[in-house]
Amino acid sequence: MKLKGDKFYILSFLLYLFLGTNLVTAKDFPFKSSPINPAFEKFIKEIKEGKVPKRLTGKHPLGLIPNPIKLRPHKPEKELKALTLPNRYDLRDEGLLTPIKDQNPYRTCWAFATYGSLESDLLKLSQPAYDFSENNLVNKHGFDPGFNDGGNISMSSAYLARGDGPVLESCDQYPNPGGSPNCPRVKYIEDIVWLPGRANTNDNQYLKQAVYYHGAVYTSMYWDGDFYNKSTYTYYYNGTENANHAVVIVGWDDNKETQASNPGAWIVRNSWGEGFGEGGYFYVSYYDTAFAFNTNAYFIDKPDLNNGNFTIHQYDELGLENALGCGNTIYGANVFRANKFQKIEAVSFFAYEPADYEIRVYKNCNNPNNISGSPAITQTGSISEPGYYTIDLNTPVYVEKDSYFLVIVKFTTTSSDAYPLGIEEKINNYSSGATCNSGESFVSCDGVTWDDICGYYDLTNVCIKALATSTFTPTTDITPIIMLLLGE
């Protein structure tokens, strides 16, 4: 579907004003682009004007930067309400949390919230207690903001998805602004599930379910000390400010009294040391009007390919800053070159919407407009939430050294007003390091005619990766030869 009329020109103007893009005409751009997050627009505007955004100031160190695009609000589902969960649940009681940390004096809440969630989620999966390095994440996230300039879950996700972390705290200790040694990655985090913000202050069941089944959940809130009760460790904000602080949901208590009229509160892990609140934890009312209304997240870890010794073919080192749609269906494709004999064992992608997907891998192909023959594999599935997902291929695809291979992912959504395909984008003062070359990433509305994404606005690459292990196994089928030698 093409952008038409006022919608296109408004989008073009906003992109020019806030993102420093090169405008093209509606005729040149046959895809819908996801709406820009107004809070992010405001943040970039303040940066351009040389102001320190209010969200980065305050008595306590905060540091949340809005995501460039905001997920659609959660849609409450009746089936979730039918699940029976306890009136109170606390991951502290389950031994599924690592020790409290202290971000002071830097604006790095987002990194501590990321690993507060990840470390808990790994414990939930019966893995060891890890202490990951926030310092490495903050120093090496790859985006424009400096060590003390803040961040968000999108930046954390990009860092983890490209395979730069997590690394251990013992190798890179906090705080050390601007300096991080080369540390080995402990594991690869295959899935990062982005849960949408609450639809309203009563929309809590899906977040409870996530904590109960997956462990601690990354979230955000608006912090102002005037709304905190130090004697009861409770917090209730009922204003209209955007979130400015990242924290972690570790449980809930339906009967907890707060400053709100009705009982009920989230049990929240902070990153201000054990001296804050109840040993580093506090309670936020269900009726808080800024709590968990932006992207929430948890992590799923699966056994790494080849014990972690694998190659990530990718162009989208900075992950998802934008997303595209084209009616109910859109296709994304990346052309990669194998620098050795390899076995393609998984395909991963960022997606902005729940969708059905179809993965196709073509060997010896360097342009989706020139496909010949059948794909080496076709595999289908679905995702129920936005985020980053790694899909293990049912059958590995062997590729020759110095050969090109093409990975296509088709997304199909139930709505024609959707933007499932994740796109990396160059945004001044945020992701200005994003680059692209022609012949790398392509998009299509029909899977037949493809456009090279490099050059549209400041879009750079499609958020599709291929995970490969090295192999000396011949890429042709030698079964007949083996059978002949065995005399069968």
TrEMBL record:
<comment type="similarity">
    <text>Belongs to the peptidase C1 family.</text>
</comment>
<dbReference type="InterPro" id="IPR040528">
    <property type="entry name" value="Lectin-like"/>
</dbReference>
<keyword id="KW-0378">Hydrolase</keyword>
<keyword id="KW-0645">Protease</keyword>
<dbReference type="GO" id="GO:0006508">
    <property type="term" value="P:proteolysis"/>
</dbReference>
<feature type="domain" description="Peptidase C1A papain C-terminal">
    <location>
        <begin position="85"/>
        <end position="301"/>
    </location>
</feature>
<dbReference type="Pfam" id="PF18560">
    <property type="entry name" value="Lectin_like"/>
</dbReference>
<dbReference type="InterPro" id="IPR025660">
    <property type="entry name" value="Pept_his_AS"/>
</dbReference>
<protein>
    <submittedName>
        <fullName>Papain family cysteine protease</fullName>
    </submittedName>
</protein>
<dbReference type="InterPro" id="IPR000668">
    <property type="entry name" value="Peptidase_C1A_C"/>
</dbReference>
<dbReference type="InterPro" id="IPR013128">
    <property type="entry name" value="Peptidase_C1A"/>
</dbReference>
<dbReference type="InterPro" id="IPR038765">
    <property type="entry name" value="Papain-like_cys_pep_sf"/>
</dbReference>
<dbReference type="GO" id="GO:0008234">
    <property type="term" value="F:cysteine-type peptidase activity"/>
</dbReference>
<dbReference type="Pfam" id="PF00112">
    <property type="entry name" value="Peptidase_C1"/>
</dbReference>
